[in-house]
Amino acid sequence: MDVNAAVAAAAAIAGVLTGVIAALAFRWSEREQKRPTRTSLHTDPVLPPGVDTVLSVLRSSAVVLDEADAVVKASSAAYALGLVRGGKLAVEPMIAMARDTRRDGEIRQVELDLPRRGTGRGEALAVSARVAPLGSRLVLLLVEDLTEARRIEAVRRDFVANVSHELKTPVGALSLLSEAVMGASDDPEAVERFAGRMQIEATRLTNLVQELIDLSRVQNDDPLEDAEPVRVDELVAEAIDRCRHQAGTKQITMAAGGTADLRLWGNRGQLAAALGNLVENAVNYSPARTRVGIAARRVTAPGGDLVEIAVTDQGIGISDKDKERVFERFYRVDPARSRATGGTGLGLAIVKHVAASHSGEVTVWSSEGQGSTFTLRLPEAGAARNRAAGSQTPGLDEDDETGQTDGTTTVSSPYEPFSAPEVHP
User: Rounded CA gap, 218 and 408, in Å?
Assistant: First the structure.
């Protein structure tokens, strides 16, 4: 009996110990499951409620860092800018800002120039970085790309500087000539000569101001608001009539030809100004007793027919290095010739913007000593009207929709419009 009792007591003790051990193991397991792991610190649930939603709608690139500078959350824009690589913030100055903000809780902001990812030309990416505390141990980094804003500001500064320089020349000339007239009051011939020069400078100043107004208008206005069918024949006739006097003075023959009865859809005034500028340039830069031709034709394209209007001259031509810049504001291939003809350097810039705003382009072919051909390529009336109604026309560069065409595409050969009937000035 004593043996059986001992066995029973031992079994009871063993059962109690097993129960105690099982209870302790269960409690330890629960505690381990509730303990935050190293990886759980870097997942989305550590973000305060609603932060993830707010970050997803921000235009700025957003990065959330934890106390170890590890990336908890990053927007796709942050990856696109190259701020986050391999799950870590890749910009050391921003890491230093985050550490300082985590230490004292102050908001910091700085502008930085970062190397542009994927280019070997050393181009800088201008950004504005702002760091702020997010909760007790997280830091929020917001980065805004300022590159385009800086580029636009630089263009604006250059434009203002160029305008100021261009305006100073005729204004200064008028001032000097007026003093000369006053000093030569007893010499009628000198007064007449100086007065004639004053008229020339006043005309140049008037033309410059008018072209500045025209350039501002074509850049800011939507030409399709007042769009209408425009006959190409009428545009050509108007451009020839505009330059008839200059061509007659230099004994330049103007020839018009090509396909008849073509129509464009757009702002008549802007289209007439663009073609008129091309014809006027052709006349001004052509030697005496040469020809200027204007030819129009229809070109089939996947998204609808296009109208090409080519203006060809037998002038001095344009060098390869100048072709890349002829559509820039105030750029002149031959400054001396421009001064002699009263050119402002804005005519081709206006042509470029008119073409872009009408979903088209302007191109140039040229050979030094042989002449140049400038070609306006615009959608024909039907295709252009469909585009204005909202249909996307394939086959044209997407840059044309935003008005950012470079305008320097070189065609393989010039047109030969001189077989058409001649129009003599």
Answer: 19
